[in-house]
Specification:
Blueprint (H helix, E strand, L loop, with lengths): L3 H19 L3 H8 L3 H29 L1 H18 L6 H33 L4 H24 L4 H19 L18 E3 L2 H4 L12 E3 L4
Antiparallel strand pairs: 1-2
């Protein structure tokens, strides 16, 4: 996996697969914590809160440390937190765990989009729709796996642990080829805004929705 383009495509697909895997298991998570509809809605809000908070500063961190490092750190956090949501003993703890999941995802979302912009500029090809399609394809695979796990009565912890292990192994194989530096115009940048689309911020509630993080207001 020596191609930066291939590495970034795979990172997009992995994030899509992770959220495609857990979103269909929300009914099982709700049953586990005995959550009522209103309580569950508040718990799920934690994911969006975590993502928005993380996305607000992840662009600056990527500009300072490089997208590759942030992709690595946020991916590790994501695969560690995913199984934890399956064992949250209460609705409150589920919501707090989803805040962590959302923060990990928000950081990864920004970092992988910055890496994607780097690839676009290096190749001078309009590849962003391809990267977002990879996310959607990953979400489709993850959702299909979740449906199969639910049909086979596989517990959420076992299911999420398998997804996390696979995601960790694949990420480890490709992360070295994720572009480590922002595009030249971002190297001494000032990120003024980082916008996350409604589809991306609703953590896992829209399986297959591509993240549309847009970094704007960049100055040299």
């Amino acid at each position: 996996m020596r191609s930066p383009k291939t590495a970034v495509l795979i990172v997009f697909a992995i994030q899509g697969a992770i959220f495609g895997s857990w979103a269909p298991r929300v009914p099982a998570l709700a049953e586990h914590v005995h959550a009522q509809t209103g309580q569950l809605g508040l718990a799920l809000l934690g994911g969006s809160i975590g993502m928005i908070i993380a996305a607000s500063f992840a662009g600056r961190l990527s500009a300072r440390f490089g997208a590759r490092l942030l992709v690595l750190i946020s991916s590790v956090a994501l695969v560690l937190v995913l199984p934890a949501i399956a064992v949250a003993p209460s609705t409150v703890q589920l919501g707090l765990t989803l805040v962590l999941l959302g923060a990990s995802a928000g950081t990864l979302d920004v970092a992988m989009n910055i890496a994607a912009v780097t690839v676009v500029r290096q190749t001078e090809r309009p590849l962003m729709p391809v990267f977002h399609a990879s996310y959607s394809f990953g979400g489709l695979i993850g959702a299909a796996g979740a449906a199969g796990a639910a049909a086979a009565h596989v517990g959420t912890f076992a299911h999420f642990s398998v997804v996390s292990a696979l995601a960790a192994m694949i990420t480890a194989a490709v992360v070295a080829n994720v572009p480590n530096e922002p595009p030249a115009s971002m190297q001494h940048e000032c990120m003024r805004t980082v916008r996350v689309s409604p589809g991306a911020s609703a953590i896992g509630t829209v399986p297959g929705a591509a993240p549309e993080t847009v970094v704007t207001g960049v100055t040299g």
